[in-house]
UniProtKB/TrEMBL annotation:
Organism: Streptomyces prasinus
Protein name, entry field: ABC transporter substrate-binding protein
InterPro entries in UniProt: Peripla_BP_I
Keywords: Coiled coil, Membrane, Transmembrane, Transmembrane helix
Superkingdom in the source lineage: Bacteria
Amino acid sequence: MSTEAGIDVQRQLESLIQDFRTSDPPMPVIVLHAEDPADDGRVIELVDELREGQQGHGTRLAVASTEPQPGTDTPTARAARLVRDLGDPGKWGDRSAAYRPYSFPRLGLVRALQEATDDPEMREHWPTAPAGTPEGNTQREQAQTRLLRILARQRWRPRRPPRRQILLTDVQQFLPMGVLGAFTALLTRPEWYIAVLAGIGLMVLLAVLNHVPGRAPLFLWLRGESRWFLTTTFLQSAARHQSTSVRLLRPAHSWRAIAARAYDVSEAMREGGPFPLQLYVLALLEDLRSNHRRRSWDLRGFKRTSPPVLFLRRTGRENGGIELIRAVSDVRSRRSELDPLLIVAGVAANDAPLLDRGADGTPRVLPSPSRSRLQQRLRGWYDEWAGNLRADQSPSRTNALPWVLRIPLPREELVELRDRRCVRAGHRPPLVRVVWSVYSLALALLLVCTAGGAHSYELHRTYCSAGLLSANRDTERHSAPGAGTECVGIATGDVRFGAYLRDTDDEEADEQGERLRALENRIHDENARVLRNHSGTYVTVVYAGPLSSSEVNPSPVKGVEELTGVYLAQRVVNENHTVKMRVLLANGGADMGHQSETAGAVAAYAERDPTFVGVVGFGRDLQSSPEVTDRLHKAEVPIVSGTNSASYLPKDFSNWFSLAVPDEHQAEALGHVARQLRAPGGTTHAMVLARDLEGSQDRYTREQAVYGEEMLRREGFRMLRTRDYRVVNGDPELRLHAELICQGKDVPSVIYFAGRVEDVGPLMTQLSIQPGCANKEISILTGDDLSKARFSGTGGSDGVAPRITLYHAALAELEDAAPSTAFYEEAARHLTWIEQDRLPYTSRDFASGQTALSHDAARALYWAASRQDVPQSRAATWVNLRSVKLDRMATGTIDFTEAPLYGERHGHSILIKRVRRTPAGVSEAEVLCSRTAGDAEPLDAKECSIK
C-alpha cells in the first residue's frame, strides 16, 4: 500500500478475513471517502490498491462496473443491472482463487423471470381487467400460461447463461439417479460393466429429457433455487395465498406452486420500484451464503476461508452505486441470516452523507480524526458499528443505513509514502481442503476402485455367481481333482453346474454334460412354474450329488443318472398331487470330494427357507460322511439316500434313511456264493485286494474290505495277505500286485475286490496275461459299485477276462419289480432321450439302478413331506419318514415302518450277479438271486446256486 490510510484499511480488511476463518462476523459495507472533496481521486486510487492487494492474496473478489452509462435509466434500474452482472462466476476470479468458481442459481432464476417479464411476447398478455373478476381471473390464467411457456423456452435460465454452463447443468440431480440405477442393476448380480452402463445410460436419458426444447427441465421443483424461491419470506407478500409446499413424491403439486409463485413475482417485478433491485440483492446474498455454507456435501465453507469482496470504485447516484448500497442494507435489515459479502466502496466526499443519516435526518458526527491514528479509529468504529446493529435495524430508524460503515480519510493519511508496504493476515491452508478435495477425492476413488476391484476379483474367484460388489454365497469355486475349477454348493438364483463342465475328447463325458445341462434347465422351468402358480402349496427338496467332472473322472454319469430319477419324481408328483415339489441342486464336487462344504451350504439354506424339507443324495461313502450327516442332523435335515450303502450311518444318526443294502449285508449275500466256491474238504486260498486309501476320502472300499475279509474267514477260506493298490492320476497300479498274486506259492482261487468299478478293467487285463493266473479258474467277488459297469451284454464295453468269473452285488432288482410299476411308462413320457429299443430295465439309462433308486428316494421324501396333502415342516417330515410305505415303486416297496431307531433295517432291494465270458468272447451278466425292495426274507445258498 502506498499510503498510511491504505495500510490501515488493509489491516482492517485482513482482520475481518482472519475473523471470518473462525467465526461468522457481520460484514459491513465499508464506505471510504475523503474529508476534502479535492482528495476524491486519491480515494479511488486507494480502492484500486486494496483490490490489487486482495487479489494478490487470493481473495475471491469482484469489481462492479460503476463507470457512467448512457441512457435514461433510473438509479434503481442501474443498480439492478450492476447486480445482474455479478451473476457471472467469471467476475469473481478464476480457478486460481481458493476452491472452485462460484455458482449463482438463485440470481439466475431471478434474471430469467425478469427477462420473461420484459419479453415483448408478454406485453399484450398482461391482464387489464380488475383482479378478482371473472374476466380478470381468465386473463390472469392466460398470462400465467404464456409466462410459463416463455420460461420453458428459456429453460428457466437467463437467455445468456453464464459461461462454464454445460449440457449437464443439473448433473447434481441426475447423478443420484444414475447411482440408484447402477445400484439397482447390481442387485441382479450382472457383470460390473453392465451396472456402470445402466447408471450412465440413465443419466444420459435424463439429460436428454431435461433438455427437450419447449419443456420445463426435469426435477425443476427439486432444484435448490426453486426451494428457496418458494420458501423465502421476502416473496411471501407477492404470493396470493398460494401453496409453498415442495415435495419429492408430488411433482404436480410442487409444479403448480412454482408456477403460481413465478407469476406473482413477475407481476411485482413489472410494477417496478425497489422490489426488483432488492430481489436481485437477496438472490445474490443467498447464493453467496450457499457458496460458503459449511454444512454441505463438499464442505465448501471450510475451504473458502476468505469472504468474497465487492469493490465499488466510483459510487454515486448516477451509476446506481448508492442505490445498490441502500438495497444491500435494506435486505440485510429484513433478514436474520448473516451473509459473507464484504463491500468496499469509494464515495465522493459530497455524496458520503447520503449513506449515513441519523433518525432526524441530520448527519452523524464522527470522532475527530486527530484524536488517534486511523488504525485505532477503524477498530473502534467497527466495534461500535457491530454493537449498534440491533438498534440501527429498528423500524423507527427511518432513514438509517445500519449496515454501512463510513470511514472518512483525512488528507495527511492519503499522502503517498516512499516505500510501499504489504499487509496480510497469517494464512494457512485449511486441513479440510487437503482432506476433502478433488485430489483427495480422486485418491479416495482410486483406493475405493482398487479395493472394490480386489473385492470383486475375490468374489468372482471364490463364488460361482458374483456381481461387482455382491455374490451368491450358496455356491463356491473349488479346485477340481487334477486341474480346473468346479462349482460346489447349493444352486440358487441363476447358478448352473452344467456350465462348469469342460468339453473333453470323451464322447460319453460330453454326452453326460449335455444331459446335465438339459436336466438343469428342465428342473428350473418346473420350479418356476411351481413358484408362479402354486405359492404356499409346495415343498422344496434338495438333491445332493456329484455334478462335476475332473481330469481324473471326466464324466458325471452317477450324478446325472441320480438327477434323472429326481427330475422324473418331480414331474410325476407335480402332475398328480396337490402339494407340488420344488427341486434344488447341490453339487458335492467330482466324486463328492467337497461334500462337507455342500452340507454346510445346505444347512445354511435350511435356516432361511421354511419350505425345505430334506435332502436326497449323498450317495458316496467317504471319510467325511459322518461329519456331513452330523452337520445336517444338527440342522434338523433328514437325508434319504438312494445309493450310499454305509452300514454305520443308520446306526449312528437318526436322520439317515437309505434305500441301498448295507455293505455288511452285501458281504453276507456274497458269502452264499463264496461257500460254493470253496473246495470241500480241502484248502482254498483267498485274499482281499483293496484300494490304498492313503490320501483318499474313500471309505466305501475300506468297509468292503473289512466285511469281505470277515466273510471269507467265516466261510473257511485260508486267507493270504491283503494287498493294497495305489491309484495315481486316476490309473490303478495293479501290475506288480498281479505278478505277486499269480507268481506266488499259493495262487488264490477267490479274490475279494474292494475297489471301484473303474479299476476292474485294468485288473482283468493284468490277471489275463500273468502266468499262474491265465490258465487258472479265478472268481472275483465285489460289492455294488460294479453295478455301474456296462458289460457287453448290456450295451457297454466293459468285460471280464477268460477263465475269470465275476460275482458282484447290486442295489436295484429292476426286472422283478418292472411288471408292477409305472416307472418306465412315466420315464418314456418325460425322459424323451431314453432308448426304447430294448427292455426298459436293461437299457443303459436304467441298468445301473441309480436312476430308479434316486426316483424312489425322492418319492419317499415327498410322501413324508406332504402327508394328508398338506405341506409338512422339516421336523414333521423327519418324523413322517418312519411311517413311509410305498408300493409299486421302481425297485419294489419302499418301507421305513420297520426301521429301528439307530439300527439297520431289512427289506432292501438286492441281487447277486454273475459275469463271465462266453465262448463267443462276449461278457454275459446273469442274475443268480435277488430280492425286490420290501421283501425282508434273506437270500440262501440254494437260491444263489452257481451250478
